[in-house]
């Protein structure tokens, strides 16, 4: 199962090095391959070149934000079917951790994301959601 | 006969129909005439003292505007609070117009009151909503920073724990490094947060408004030079001293200059980067401006495409509290902060402090003692 031919590839998009390290270890320990990008621009290039099976996406990043990246991916017919799991610390007014999910899920130009996890993540729930999306 | 007809018509179609309460007050402060709306609002009035009718008071009001209008014949407009017939408080805007015949003294004052209770209530609600929005914004900024650090700490623990379980020294070392990095970050964060939460009441002293600029520019000179950015000052000389919280203004300018340097460092194009800090005084308004030709903000796009309340700044560059703190300090000085930005071209931030709204300078201790009442 964990030979590199069969292992599904996850693209981790986050500008926090320790978050990237954490997710890399977590996904590798669970039999996935990983690649990573520190901003939306780099992520889009990797997306086109490497065609990952799933993306975990941070929202606040320099250069190109996660929001722009999400729009680019979901409006590109070549990429739109790749599931995106948003993992963000973005917090709404009064501390609502799901404010961004509500926001992004009610846009006319993009569909809601396949998954949403506020930081810090619930490890088992995230792995479970990813397992389901990649089955 | 015709005059009487006109009078009746005016009474029925104008005096009684206008959506304001009109009362006529005599020199002895009694209501001698009123329209229907007046009676509906304040109840029975015939011959009763005006302070009783409007406010349910036995004595004359302390700052009666009618007294002043009887004395000088000037028209006055005032906001007042009164008690309406149902016994509840109401806010009204009253116009006082003297009725005067040429060569005669003022015998009556006509008072036209418009009910503005709802407007007042809306005003109050709007202020409250703004306050709550500011609190929400602060909480959101703080939560964002803390959650990122928390996730880094959890990552470190995961690495250490799994490293121990697998006997993988390299992984344990990696985990420790993650823990150390995020502990450092949370310390820095707590320091910034405390600065923000201190709720520093501005300690205003009379200072040269150019002084904090000189200090900030000196502080960043080396950092800018190392990054190949020209840091320029353009100070208007001879600005009169102003009551400012020097430390506060220093914090604001340091935040703006630090942001401007970041904006240059983050720019994709290479050019001769310049950050300029300037001061001006125009029409009694002190103006500080920090201008850079760095990356600019993708404001248009973020506005068109998605919402405006998410930061796109990477969390490795500060906590996102800098501008919030700056805004707060500027508000404490009675001023405002605004910005203009073009993606790829640069940004300018402007702090405007009207002298009239600046805080009172802290009094010297000796003076303070003198003004305190003796026990």
Overall description:
The complex is a heterodimer of chains A (135) and B (375). Chain A has 135 residues and is α/β, with parallel strands linked by helices. Chain A has one domain: Rossmann fold, CATH 3.40.50. Chain A is built from 5 helices and 5 strands, in the order βαβαβαβαβα. Chain A has a 5-stranded parallel sheet with strand order 2-1-3-4-5, with helices on both faces. In chain A, strand 4 (84-88), helix 4 and strand 5 (115-118) form a beta-alpha-beta unit. In chain A, helix 2 runs parallel beside helix 3 (66-74). Chain B is an alpha+beta fold. Chain B has 3 domains: 2-115, Beta-Lactamase, CATH 3.30.450.20; 118-198, Helix Hairpins (Orthogonal Bundle); 200-362, Heat Shock Protein 90, CATH 3.30.565. Chain B is 47% helix and 22% strand. Chain B contains 11 helices and 12 strands. In chain B, 28% of the residues are buried. Classes of the chains: A alpha/beta (135), B alpha+beta (375). Chain A binds chain B through residues 15-19, 21-23, 25-26, 29, 39, 59-63, 65, 67-68, 71, 89-95, 97, 100, 103, 107, 118-121, 123, and chain B through 132-133, 135-137, 139-140, 143-145, 147-148, 150-152, 154-156, 158-159, 162, 171, 174, 178, 181-182, 266, 298, 301-302, 305-307, 309-317.
Brief summary:
The complex is a heterodimer of chains A (135) and B (375). Chain A is α/β, with parallel strands linked by helices and 135 residues long.
